[in-house]
Amino acid sequence: MSDAPQILAEWARVYRELGYWPRPITIGSRACHVSGWQKPDAEIPAAELASWLTKYGPLGIGLLLGSPFPDSTTLGALDGDHNDYMRVARELLRDPPCGRIGKRGAVFFVRVRGRLSNPEFRVAGKGDKVAECLFTKKLCVIPPTIHPDTERPYQWMGRPLHEIDFRELPIVEMGDA
User: What is the chain's Cα-based Rg?
Assistant: First the structure.
């Protein structure tokens, strides 16, 4: 067990120092099974957050979306489920500097301004989900976590999120409708 990579233990501190809300990802899944994982870090006792590093150190890492930025926007992600639509997603987001790849499609990190929701987009006539907005109380698994289907690490597209100034992320405006 001592040879096991300490993914959460190594990376949670990096992301937490940047204001993100890292969560342990259960091996072989895309889920966090820690009670209360959907709460913002400010609502979780600091001692509990610290205990996750030793208790869940070898697990993967995901980010709880919705963490606030200094400009009143929040961290979000556009999760594209089909490779066929990635070019259009990149164009709509004006070539975002950061994303991650798992099995298919990609997730692009964004800043969200306005009312938070998690809409899905479907192809007209087919009903297939093309993309999903992960804006609040949603989890996004990030590298170097191992993808449960491919058994290979998720990969960054562009620069890793921890190397991006949040102001470089595209803004998605959410209306009141």
Answer: 16
